[in-house]
Design goal:
Blueprint: H1 2-30, H2 32-39, H3 46-66, H4 73-98, H5 101-109, H6 115-137
Protein name: Stage V sporulation protein AB
Pfam families: SpoVAB (PF13782)
InterPro entries: SpoVAB (IPR020144)
Length: about 140
């Protein structure tokens, strides 16, 4: 009976490592990390950024699986939410940039002058949606 549990644990861990590796490779392959490093002029820290992304995924999985509580987590939660939102937003923008949605969209609708306002509108809409979600949950 215990050999079956060991085999299941091994398969679960292997599948998790494979899925996480694929996700992290996708993030790095999109160029999110290198774009951040290029825009902040910190190209020498790219390996550190990639290690931090992997470590964040590993620690997040460990906290989720083992239900580890973080002391004073209520104070850390808004900061985590803000940083997570920035990361997801940048990831979505990088994905959209890879498939060239924005250049085609801007050219077809002839809205070159309105780009800053569109970006601001998207950011404010995302923030308002997150705020409404947060208020209704409490």
């Amino acid at each position: 009976m215990w050999i079956r549990q060991v085999i299941l644990a091994f398969l679960g861990i292997s599948a998790g490592i494979t899925a996480a590796g694929g996700l992290f490779a996708f993030i790095v392959g999109l160029g999110v990390v290198s774009d951040f490093a290029d825009r902040t002029h910190t190209g020498s820290y790219v390996m550190l950024y990639e290690d931090c992304i992997a470590l964040g995924g590993i620690l997040g999985s460990i906290f989720y699986i083992f239900r580890i509580s973080i002391p004073y987590g209520g104070w850390i939660l808004p900061v985590f939410g803000l940083l997570s939102g920035i990361f997801v937003g940048c990831w979505a923008m990088a994905l959209a940039e890879i498939i060239n949605i924005f250049p085609i969209f801007v050219r077809r609708l002839k809205i070159v002058e309105a780009i800053p306002y569109l970006i601001l509108g998207m950011a404010l809409g995302k923030g308002a949606g997150a705020w409404i979600f947060l208020v209704h949950r409490w």
